[in-house]
Automatic annotation (TrEMBL):
<protein>
    <submittedName>
        <fullName>ISPsy4, transposase</fullName>
    </submittedName>
</protein>
<dbReference type="InterPro" id="IPR012337">
    <property type="entry name" value="RNaseH-like_sf"/>
</dbReference>
<feature type="domain" description="Integrase catalytic">
    <location>
        <begin position="28"/>
        <end position="208"/>
    </location>
</feature>
<dbReference type="GO" id="GO:0015074">
    <property type="term" value="P:DNA integration"/>
</dbReference>
<dbReference type="InterPro" id="IPR036397">
    <property type="entry name" value="RNaseH_sf"/>
</dbReference>
<dbReference type="Pfam" id="PF00665">
    <property type="entry name" value="rve"/>
</dbReference>
<dbReference type="InterPro" id="IPR001584">
    <property type="entry name" value="Integrase_cat-core"/>
</dbReference>
<dbReference type="GO" id="GO:0003676">
    <property type="term" value="F:nucleic acid binding"/>
</dbReference>
């Protein structure tokens, strides 16, 4: 025996069961010097954790990376200071996720008026940038830095870890920091960016013209002194398929 009711009643009945369409991700571009997107990404968990503080300028897509074992307030603040020194200036805004080391209470003083972690608020006052956070459950609003995280792991972490493992060594914080600066300058910032179609180094030179000045005379941070292994990472051959490096990682497994 079939359904004898009206169509409108049937639609009203099934409406609560229909899956809501996901909000489309809208790509947006920022003006030079407007925004930096900041994130922590996990490289390795366990007894020897490896994490990376990553900061990506919205216009140029130039990035700064600093490795550490922990994601804490000190890691965020040190990373920001070193990133601003590396870029030679400060953007107008810094966009974060909703980590407790960044924001302690959303909308504490009204909509969009958040209570920031005291140390972050002090750093923002010192450098003159405005902190911003993503909407909850909308981390894709800082998609520029999220996409760089994937590129970092595939183009830097995997080749370096494989090369070290073939020599009986393990990638650690000191060694990663010792190599990241050269990789950023020679590889990441020299590639043709898939979205902008321009090398990040070229757009960075434009963006630096409008960055806010550093509050004090700052020097570009020097990479940490890692193991003296010579030119461990063959930068000129980073375009090999990832399967090549994955095979190296399996050699000593």
């Amino acid at each position: 025996m079939g359904y004898s009711g009206g169509v409108s009643r049937l639609k009203a009945y099934i409406r609560p069961f229909k899956r809501k369409a996901e909000e489309p991700v809208v790509r947006f571009e920022t003006l030079p010097g407007k925004q930096i997107q900041v994130d922590f990404t996990t490289i390795r968990r366990g007894r020897q954790p490896l994490k990376a503080f990553v900061a990506t300028l919205g216009f140029s897509r130039a990035s700064f990376v600093r490795f550490s074992e922990r994601e804490d307030s000190e890691g965020w603040l040190t990373g920001l200071r070193e990133a601003f020194a590396y870029f030679g200036g400060v953007p107008e805004q810094a966009l974060f996720d909703n980590a407790g080391t960044i924001i302690t209470e959303r909308d504490a003083f009204g909509e969009g008026q958040h209570r920031w972690h005291p140390r972050l608020a002090a750093l923002a006052d010192e450098f003159g940038f405005i902190p911003k956070v993503c909407r909850p459950y909308r981390a894709q609003t800082k998609g520029k830095v999220e996409r760089f995280n994937g590129y970092l792991k595939g183009s830097f972490i995997t080749p370096l870890a494989a090369t070290l493992k073939s020599a009986g060594l393990t990638l650690d914080v000191v060694t990663a920091n010792a190599h990241i600066g050269q990789w950023l300058d020679e590889v990441a910032h020299q590639r043709i960016h898939g979205t902008t179609g321009v090398q990040p180094a070229v757009r960075l030179a434009q963006e630096q013209q409008v960055l806010l000045p550093l509050p004090t005379q700052s020097l570009r941070p020097q990479p940490a002194q890692g193991l003296r292994l010579g030119r461990v990472l063959p930068y000129e051959s980073l375009q090999h398929p990832l399967s090549v490096y994955e095979q190296l990682l399996e050699v000593r497994a």
